[in-house]
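Quick check before the chapter quiz. The format below is the same one you will see on the exam, so make sure you can read both the input and the output lines.
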Amino acid sequence: MKKGHLDMIERVYNDFPAFSDIFTEETFYIFAFCFVLFTILVAFILSRFITLKPMD
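Here is the expected output.
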């Protein structure tokens, strides 16, 4: 039973690309910068539509 679980985990692990297969150092920094900017933009836009009211 354990061997089947390990085989399944290894198969899934091998199907996903490694971090270094996706990013170089430069592309990672570009992605991180764009992700932070996008997150700030979404938070700013949502803050215009969402209002928190104190509970009575």
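If your answer matched, good. The chain is about 75% helix and 0% strand.
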